[in-house]
Design brief:
The structure holds two protein chains of two kinds.
Chain A: H1 17-31, E1 61-68, E2 78-83, H2 96-99, E3 106-107, H3 110-122, E4 127-131, H4 139-147, E5 154-159, H5 165-171, E6 177-181, H6 187-194, H7 199-213, E7 215-221, H8 227-241, E8 246-250, H9 271-284, E9 287-288
Parallel strand pairs in A: 2-4, 4-5, 5-6, 6-7, 7-8, 8-9
Antiparallel strand pairs in A: 1-2, 1-3
Helix pairs in contact in A: 1-4, 3-4, 8-9
Chain B: E1 11-14, E2 20-23, H1 27-36, E3 59-60
Parallel strand pairs in B: 2-3
Antiparallel strand pairs in B: 1-2
Classes of the chains: A alpha/beta, B alpha+beta.
């Protein structure tokens, strides 16, 4: 899948995405000296080495790069590039080993990965997806990668939506689709399961911004025992604030990594919970996509 | 960048009730899963054939 034309980037319709991405990659790299890319606002200097809650330095690593068909039907096959490290600490993370270790995997080379991505497009991939861990913490590498991709390639930014304004400004117009998680319906659950503060405020702000600046698909992974505290408030907010927006309700909760720390997360989502979650979505008129 | 072999990877979790959870689903793995259950509504659209003749619920990507 390709876009009809390059995106209108930050009010500069004549400026190609690749050129802007190249410039912004430099800005993003400089921003690592006082890192405020995500809403933790650590303010650490990542240019001198791994630092901050994500424990990432200036150098990005990746742990997966392949064409996949796991994601939303309208996006697949997608060439997925998963960067190591994350700013959240979800105990139920399905890629915990790599997401909790920003140095896991292989050193990322934007040029080398761009060659792979172009080959994937030539072999039938519809889109290119940058994900993690959380790609926001590796914004310089991600933007450099974008700068080397064809202008017409459809690019997906798969994020936990916990980025901060400096990152958003650099991301404007870079990706065609934001595929954003809205994981927790309550700040208590976010703090307990992912050790993340101010979750609701930050994520809602990012979702509204993403919806205004690109195509947005919101994902919610149903968690066992979290229908009322998480899915219900998420669904209600989406219905009220992003009416008609695309929502992917995923029921394949994988009770791995450190899920066992929490009794309710030791099993998959039951069929009954899946049914009730789907019914709630229908009752609220959410635009569910497969 | 270190030269990587072109090896695809996908992970499956087979639950006691027979459901299969999948992550990093690749096209070849989707094809394999479809052969195991041709009627699965989640997997069929992710394969080259892209059709499921009747409802089934087993795999959850």
């Amino acid at each position: 899948m390709t876009c009809a034309a390059p995106k209108n980037i930050a009010g500069s319709p004549t400026v190609a995405r690749s050129g802007l991405a190249r410039e912004r990659a430099k800005v993003a790299h400089a921003a690592l000296a006082d890192c405020h890319l995500c809403a933790h606002h650590c303010g650490v200097n990542r240019l001198v080495g791994p630092a901050g809650l994500c424990h990432a330095g200036a150098e990005a690593h990746f742990f997966l790069a392949q064409t996949e068909v796991t994601d939303e039907l309208e996006l697949i096959p997608t060439f997925a590039v998963a960067l190591s490290g994350c700013d959240l600490r979800c105990d139920f993370c399905i890629t915990g080993t790599e997401s909790w270790n920003a140095r896991a995997g292989t050193r990322f080379s934007a040029a080398g990965m761009a060659v792979q991505a172009k080959a994937a497009l030539a072999n039938g991939a519809k889109t290119i997806m940058v994900l993690g861990g959380e790609p926001t913490i590796h914004l310089p590498a991600a933007l450099e990668f974008v700068s080397l991709l064809p202008e017409t390639a459809k690019l997906i930014w798969k994020t936990n939506a916990y980025g901060a304004e400096p990152a958003r400004e650099l991301l404007a117009g870079m990706f065609d689709v934001w595929l954003a998680d809205y994981k927790f319906g309550s700040d208590d659950c976010a703090q307990r399961l992912a050790k993340v503060p101010n979750y609701t405020r930050v994520v809602r702000e990012n979702l509204l911004w993403a919806n205004a600046h690109s195509e947005l698909i919101v994902r919610h992974l149903l968690m066992p025992g979290h229908l009322d505290c998480c899915w219900k408030p998420v669904a209600e907010w989406l219905a009220e604030n992003l009416s008609g927006g695309k929502v992917n309700l995923r029921s394949g909760f994988w009770p791995g990594w450190k899920s066992a720390r929490h009794p309710e997360l030791r099993s998959p989502v039951s069929d009954d919970e899946s049914r009730r979650a789907g019914q709630l979505a229908r009752d609220l008129g959410l635009n569910l996509i497969p | 960048m270190k030269k990587r072999k072109n090896i695809l990877s996908a992970e499956l979790l087979i639950l006691p009730d027979g459901r299969i959870l999948v992550q990093n689903l690749t096209q070849p793995m989707a094809e394999l899963l479809r052969k195991l259950n041709p009627h699965d509504r989640q997997i069929a659209p992710r394969t080259a054939g892209k059709s499921a003749s009747k409802p089934a619920r087993r795999c959850r990507p």
